[in-house]
Amino acid sequence: MAPDRWRNRLSFGLGTIGRDMSAALVSLYLVYYLTEVVNISQATLVGVTVIIVVMRIFDALNDPVMGVVVDNTRSRWGKFKPWIAVGAVLWAVSTLILFVDTGLRGTGFLLVFAVAYLMWGISYTINDISFYGMLPSLSRNLKEREAIGVVARIAANVGLFSVVVGVIPITNQLTALLGSEEKAWFVFAVILVSLMLAFQSLTLIFTRQRVATPTARTPLRELFAVITRNDQLLVVTAAMLLFMAGYTATTSLGIYYFKYVYGDEGMYPIFALILGVAQLTGLAIFPLVSARLTRRQIHGVASAMCAAGLAVFALAGSSMALIAVAGVLLFMGQAFIQLLMLLFIADCVEYGEWKLGRRNESITFALQPFIYKASNALGTGLVGIALVVSGISRAQSAADLTASGVVSFKVVMMVVPMVLVIISWVVLRRWYTLDEKRYAGIVSDLRTREGLS
């Protein structure tokens, strides 16, 4: 039995490595690539920011529809794997399109960018909903589900931070080798999407579903009711949307911070390595912490760590030691929260089944990419605001930034996210009631119903 459990933990978990590599490339560095490598104008940057925000929101609103499609799929490979494969291939293609310098500028560039970015968002949706929608079907046991989630998030963060740490040195080396920054970033994208497809293949080949797929299908007309009547899912969505919007803004602005505020871009990979170790440590010790604290308590501690980290970051000045302390607090706390988000949404599957009488894994997990995309849209909006109001969009180096520009940048990068973290904690604390005891009672009741049917 143990080897069978570990097969699912590893094959599902390792499938996230390449996914998060490719996701990090676009969500954290696409704007950097466009402003620092392609050198788009400030007017084009404003257009890109608007396109990303609008396309993300539009695509996010369509995520639940994809959830219905996946939940209603019946095939010899199950309902999840066909869409995981389709989404991964389309995701790879659209990522490469985003990192091709077509030579277009102005309106022509914006039109091509809008189409490519929309394609990227849709393909991400297809893969993400089907991939994470599979998680609740791997086990109903709370601790086993937690174990699968821990492995998945550790693997995902290995992928994420390998990109964060390596993006500058690797693209610099490729630039020296290829003689062009544009070619270097494109080759880097090719490497990442190739790894994504390879690791996704592990999930497709080896992961096995353990909870049976219900025969009943969900009509599209009932989609709205499935989501809105799951009150706990709505609470988790609201809380995590607020948190992730601030987190996305902070992480996306990190590379600009070291180049234009701290004044040493070479420190960014070192800082990223510290963050990666902190986040992986947080994920690794989560089972030990959860053995002693409830999930509600863990969320409170993690939120406090994130808020404290952002406060220290804002006051750190030129002290790399304080910046490192801030990063450890923020990213260890974020590690706890990102895993809790995954587990909270997974638990809402059983809650929805218990309350509504129908099991909808993919519709429920459609709210995860919705959170990611909507928060990314808001975070990207904050990034655009920070670059414009600080003067970075017009600057060539740190010397070009005024003192007021630095303050404006820090407010958007650190103070606004800190406020969002606090509001997120309040929302979850006040309205989320699906704790461990209540979940156990729901699962017991569901098993009783199944035995009677």
TrEMBL record:
What's the name of the protein?
A: Sugar transporter
The GO molecular function terms of this record are: symporter activity
A GO CC annotation given for this chain: plasma membrane
Q: Which keywords does the record carry?
A: Membrane, Sugar transport, Symport, Transmembrane, Transmembrane helix, Transport
Source superkingdom: Bacteria
Under the heading InterPro entries, the entry gives:
MFS_2, MFS_trans_sf, Na/Gal_symport
Q: Which PANTHER family match?
A: MAJOR FACILITATOR SUPERFAMILY DOMAIN-CONTAINING PROTEIN, MELIBIOSE PERMEASE
Q: Which GO terms describe its biological process?
A: carbohydrate transport; sodium ion transport
| Residue stretches spanning the membrane | 12-34, 40-61, 82-100, 106-126, 147-172, 184-207, 233-258, 270-289, 301-323, 329-349, 370-393, 405-428
